[in-house]
Write a structure and sequence with these properties.
By secondary structure, the chain is mainly β. The chain has a domain of 258 residues: YVTN repeat-like/Quinoprotein amine dehydrogenase (Methylamine Dehydrogenase, Chain H), CATH 2.130.10.10. Helix content is 2%, strand content 51%. It has one helix and 28 strands. The chain has a four-stranded antiparallel beta sheet with strand order 3-2-1-28, with no helix packed on it. A four-stranded antiparallel beta sheet has the order 4-5-6-7, with no helix packed on it. A four-stranded antiparallel beta sheet has the order 8-9-10-11, with no helix packed on it. It is globular.
Length: 390
C-alpha cells in the first residue's frame, strides 16, 4: 500500500500564494499509547517535512521518525523546534530538533517530563524558562532553558487541581478516561500574559491563573476561573491588540470570549473574565469535540475545528473582541484535530486525523471564508501542522 500520495491537480491554475511555504506535520505513530483512540487507517511514522507551493500543491520532503509527536512548538530564534511526545505508558518527553530552511530536522536532545501524555510547551517571554504541560495527570513542570533553547533542570513541578482530596480521582486507563473526562484534572496548555500565566484544565472545568516570577522562574497560584458546567476548556489564543482571549471548550463545542484585566496588578483577583459563549456548531446533535483554535494573521477572524462534525467554524472578530459566527465549512475528512493558516493568511491546511490526510483550503482575507481546493495529501494519522516561518 502506497500511503504518501498527493491528489493535487493544479496544472494551469492561478497561483494560490505569492511564495512557497515549508511546514511540518506531526503524526501519531503508536495509537495504543494515547489517552484517546484515533481511528486512523494506519499509524504515522513521526514528523513529515513538507512544502506548500505557490500554486497550492503539496510535496513531501522528508520524514523524521518519532514517537507520537503531537505538538510542534518553534523557538523564537527560528532555528529550533520542540516536538512533544504524547504517551500514557510512561512519562512524556520533549524532543528538540534543529530546523533547516526547508523544514527538515536534525535531532539535538530529549527532555524528560514529570507527567504523562505531555501536550504543550510555553516559553517565558525572557526565553530562559519553559512551562511543560502534562495532560494525563495535570502535572505542570517548569524547566530552565539555555540560550540555544535546550531544556534543562526542572525547577518546579506540581499537580494542578482545585478540588479537595476525595472529591476527584486520577483516571486509571484510557477506557476509564473516555467515559470520565472530568473526574480529575487534565491540563491542556499554558499562556503567558503580562505578569500572569493561564492554564486551561478540561478536567477541572476551569482556567487556572498564576503569577509568574521572572527572577525565580516560578509559578505562584492565585485563583481559578470556573467555566460553564461541563464545558471542558481546552486551548486558548490571545488577541494581539486587545485585552481579550478566546478559549475553546472541547465538551460543549463552544468558544468563550474573555476580557483580560491588568488593573491593580498587586491585587489578587480574577484576571480572565468570560463575557460571551458562542457555539461552534449549528446544533447539538451527534458527537463532536472542539479541537484547535486560531486567529487569522490580521486577527479579524477566528477559526475552530470540530472533531466529529468534521468542520471548521468561522467567526468574525468584532471591534470590541466579541465574536459573531459567519460560517461552518466541512473539512473534507474525519476528525480535524489541527489546522494551520499560512503566514500570508491566504490558505489553510487541515489535518484530518482519522482520514489519514491533510487538505488545503483557499482563504478569502476580506470575508474570512474558506474554499476547499482539490489538493489533498495522504499522511497517516496527522495531528498537528506547523509552518516554518522566515
Amino acid at each position: 500500500m502506497v500511503w504518501y500520495r498527493s491528489h493535487c491537480d493544479v496544472a494551469g491554475s492561478h497561483s494560490l500564494l505569492q511564495q512557497d511555504y515549508h511546514f511540518l506535520v506531526g503524526t501519531y505513530s503508536d495509537l495504543d499509547a494515547l489517552a484517546h483512540k484515533p481511528y486512523a487507517p494506519v499509524p504515522g511514522k513521526g514528523i513529515y517535512a513538507m512544502t506548500l507551493s505557490k500554486g497550492g500543491a503539496l510535496k513531501l520532503n522528508a520524514i523524521t521518525a518519532a514517537l507520537n509527536p503531537a505538538v510542534l512548538i518553534p523557538h523564537p530564534s527560528g532555528k529550533v523546534i520542540y516536538a512533544i511526545v504524547e504517551t500514557i505508558r510512561e512519562t512524556g518527553s520533549v524532543l528538540r530538533y534543529a530546523v533547516s530552511s526547508d523544514g527538515t530536522l536534525s535531532f539535538l536532545d530529549e527532555f524528560a517530563a514529570s507527567g504523562r501524555s505531555t501536550c504543550y510547551l510555553s516559553l517565558a517571554p525572557s526565553r530562559d524558562a519553559a512551562i511543560v504541560i502534562n495532560y494525563w495527570d495535570a502535572v505542570i513542570d517548569i524547566a530552565d532553558v539555555s540560550d540555544d533553547g535546550k531544556l534543562g533542570q526542572i525547577t518546579q513541578s506540581f499537580r494542578q487541581h482545585y478540588r479537595s482530596a476525595g472529591t476527584w480521582r486520577q483516571v486509571t486507563s484510557r477506557e476509564d478516561h473516555w467515559g470520565n473526562r472530568q473526574v480529575g484534572p487534565h491540563a491542556h496548555c499554558a499562556h503567558f500574559w503580562k505578569d500572569w500565566v493561564f492554564i486551561p484544565d478540561l478536567g477541572e472545568n476551569a482556567v487556572f491563573q498564576y503569577r509568574w516570577d521572572p527572577k525565580a522562574r516560578q509559578l505562584k497560584g492565585e485563583t481559578h476561573i470556573e467555566f460553564a458546567a461541563g464545558s471542558g476548556p481546552r486551548h486558548m489564543v490571545l488577541h494581539p491588540n486587545l485585552d481579550i482571549c478566546y478559549v475553546s471548550n472541547e465538551l460543549f463545542n463552544t468558544v468563550c470570549v474573555a476580557t483580560l484585566d491588568a488593573s491593580d496588578p498587586e491585587v489578587l483577583k480574577e484576571r480572565l473574565i468570560p463575557i460571551q459563549y458562542e457555539s461552534t456548531l449549528e446544533g447539538r446533535g451527534g458527537v463532536s469535540y472542539v479541537s484547535e483554535i486560531k486567529l487569522s494573521p490580521d486577527a479579524k477572524f477566528l477559526y475552530v475545528s470540530n472533531r466529529g462534525d468534521n468542520s471548521l467554524a468561522i467567526f468574525r472578530v468584532l471591534p470590541d473582541g466579541r465574536l459573531t459566527r459567519t460560517g461552518i465549512v466541512p473539512t473534507g475528512g474525519k476528525f480535524p484535530r489541527h489546522f494551520a493558516i499560512t503566514p500570508c493568511g491566504k490558505a489553510v491546511i487541515v489535518a484530518n486525523q482519522d482520514s489519514g490526510q491533510i487538505r488545503v483550503f483557499a482563504r478569502d482575507i476580506e470575508s474570512g471564508d474558506l474554499s476547499a481546493t482539490d489538493c489533498v495529501y495522504d499522511v497517516p494519522a496527522p495531528n498537528y501542522v506547523r509552518f516554518i516561518c522566515c
